[in-house]
Design a protein that fits this description.
single chain, 296 residues, alpha/beta, Spore Coat Polysaccharide Biosynthesis Protein SpsA, Chain A, nine-stranded mixed sheet, 23% strand
Amino acid sequence: MTSTPRAGIPTAVFPVAGLGTRFLPATRAVPKELLPVVDRPLVQYAVHEAVEAGAKTLVFVISHGKESVAEHFRPDPTLEASLQAAGKQALVERLHDILPAGVNVEVAYQPEPLGLGHAVLCAREHVDENAFFSVLLPDDMVLNDGPGALQQMADVHARTGGGVVGVERVDPAMTGSYGIAEVDGGEPPRITSLVEKPAPEDAPSNLGVIGRYILDGRIFSRLQDLGAGAGGEIQLTDAIAGMLGEHPVYAGTLNGTRYDCGNRAGMLKANIDYALANPDLREGLLAHLRGLDLNG
């Protein structure tokens, strides 16, 4: 069920303009963010996580042709009336669960794929630059039994008053695939440096940044003046790194299991584990898995 919005981080930005080419041909006509994990689109999990952490405004940064991502969260009175007339109240409730009352959906366009930092910059007109806001990449899913990943980070923000970046320990050989954070010995640990996709020998740690951020609205000024970084793109990591001396940013080590749903293997693992976490599906799926001949 979707959590009721509460005081916390009121604006959440979802950069979802990518083409999802790793999932072709499935994503030829359907955005990757609308591919299902069990019975919900991938992006809906991230939205529920943001609402749990207090989001009342959802900003989807899309490219032209991906309007259906935002449309998924808009009311559909015709469908609802049809289900009501058919007496399918349980399905009506599932529609209501997509987005609670009082949460607004806004859209910004990213005309060119110029990087995550550029995508966040495209949301600028929808965000209060004098407040903190969150950024969630739906590709990263975090499964646990307690508060969601963003709520865990919101708790760190409430304690410290600073920004928070979600991190997890990664294989040192894989640092070239992540932004890497160096931290002090505090509790919570404060980030002292950030490097985008360093070679293993140049990495300051093995704390990899994952797709969850709570950021000071003043980061937009940094992004505006930022040139291209790693990969020729405007990197959000570079903008955060440029603020560390003025505005504290903390590392949020998250409780739970992360799934990288930006690739097929990660998406399959998420579908299996989220299904196993569903009491209506668990036993049937376990019976199927036990019956597989994995040596065949």
